């Protein structure tokens, strides 16, 4: 099992602070995103937060733009009044923006509209999405998660991006964070800060990218904090498949309605790509370990499989179709 050389609470130096666009799907007012904003700022980065006005969990890459201003009952946790414009900034901090759209739409709005005002002609070095309130393990949840959806649309736009998802899944306002170092939101923020520092270590972003074009990271943080025996989960390289779960439907014998549970199916765990020796992220982050998976947005099958299918289809139709 490979582990990153940087422990959870270590400090990793880098050449200069990054231009970071921070987003999530749990709203601009969640405890996790605000704690992460503070941690990244304290580590020397220039950070712009652009996130949905309200909770938008489970939207995946759905791209919905606003057609109205903020409606009743206003922004998440009462942070925006009904009738307010469809986007706006915090009265006390002009780098904190809400947007009345889905996570994927919010991050693209940040890329195209807000970031040029913050960073000028300088590029966005990195998009950080999360930490989500709850894990996003495996390919099935990977495509459903708004946190990950905002990440892969950023990668598709050519910007390095990392999705962070935390096992602590309580949906709470940033105003509930007292600043205690053991608060799960602050612990998750430290994980984000340290991994961003590791990704940036030794990289001159004026000359090279933080991640290869078309590639991003999905990071699943275990449940940790005062209520857990886990306090310092190290980073472990993982893959999306391996112990991953997918939906299964059965009929409830009492109600007669369909119910969903999860099963470990063969298709979702086919080890086609990735580093075969790496463990799956699902069982890894179930313990006191932080799973770091590397994904690409190229959904084409590997050449060896694609050529095999092409050859078989050409032979079947004797070249009349293909």
Explained architecture:
- With 322 residues, this protein is α/β, with parallel strands linked by helices.
- It has one domain: Stationary-phase Survival Protein Sure Homolog, Chain: A (3-Layer(aba) Sandwich), CATH 3.40.1210.10.
- Helix content is 26%, strand content 20%.
- It contains seven helices and eleven strands.
- The chain has a nine-stranded mixed beta sheet, sandwiched between helices. A two-stranded antiparallel sheet has the order 9-10.
- β6, α5 and β7 form a beta-alpha-beta unit.
- The N terminus is likely disordered.
Task: Spell out the blueprint of helices and strands.
Elements: E1 19-23, H1 31-42, E2 46-52, E3 87-89, E4 96-99, H2 103-119, E5 126-133, H3 138-144, H4 146-156, E6 161-166, H5 184-200, E7 215-221, E8 235-238, E9 246-251, E10 258-263, H6 281-285, E11 290-296, H7 303-317
Parallel strand pairs: 1-2, 1-5, 2-4, 5-6, 6-7, 8-11
Antiparallel strand pairs: 3-4, 7-11, 9-10
Helix pairs in contact: 1-5, 2-4
- Detail the poorly predicted runs: 1-14
Rg, nearest Å = 21 Å
Number of strands: 11
Quote the average pLDDT. Answer: 93
Features:
9-stranded mixed β-sheet, two-stranded antiparallel sheet, disordered N terminus, Stationary-phase Survival Protein Sure Homolog, Chain: A, 322 residues, alpha/beta, 11 strands
């Amino acid at each position: 099992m490979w582990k990153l050389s940087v422990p959870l609470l270590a400090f990793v130096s880098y050449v200069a602070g990054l231009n970071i666009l921070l987003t999530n799907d749990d709203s601009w007012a969640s405890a996790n995103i605000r704690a992460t904003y503070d941690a990244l700022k304290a580590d020397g980065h220039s950070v712009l937060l652009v996130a949905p006005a309200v909770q938008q969990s489970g939207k995946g890459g759905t791209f919905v733009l606003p057609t109205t201003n903020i409606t009743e009952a206003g922004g998440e946790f009462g942070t925006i009044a009904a009738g307010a414009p469809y986007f706006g900034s915090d009265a006390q901090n002009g780098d904190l923006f809400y947007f009345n759209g889905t996570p994927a739409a919010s991050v693209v709005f940040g890329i195209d509209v807000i970031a040029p005002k913050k960073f000028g002609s300088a590029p966005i070095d990195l998009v950080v999405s999360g930490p989500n309130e709850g894990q996003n393990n495996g390919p099935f949840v990977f495509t459903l998660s708004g946190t990950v959806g905002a990440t892969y649309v950023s990668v598709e736009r050519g910007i390095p991006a990392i999705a962070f998802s935390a096992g602590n899944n309580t949906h709470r306002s940033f105003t509930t964070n007292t600043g205690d170092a053991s608060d799960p939101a602050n612990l998750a923020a430290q994980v984000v800060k340290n991994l961003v520092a590791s990704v940036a270590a030794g990289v001159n972003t004026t000359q090279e990218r933080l991640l290869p074009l078309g590639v991003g990271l999905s990071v699943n943080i275990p449940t940790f904090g005062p209520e857990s025996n886990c306090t310092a989960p190290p980073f472990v390289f993982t893959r999306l498949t391996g112990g991953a779960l997918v939906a299964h439907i059965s009929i409830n014998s009492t109600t007669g309605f369909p119910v969903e549970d999860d099963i470990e199916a063969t298709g979702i765990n086919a080890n086609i790509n990735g580093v075969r020796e790496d463990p799956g992220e699902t069982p890894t982050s179930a313990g006191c370990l932080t799973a770091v998976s590397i994904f690409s947005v190229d959904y084409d099958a590997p050449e060896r499989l694609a050529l095999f299918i092409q050859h078989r289809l050409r032979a079947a139709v004797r070249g009349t179709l293909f």
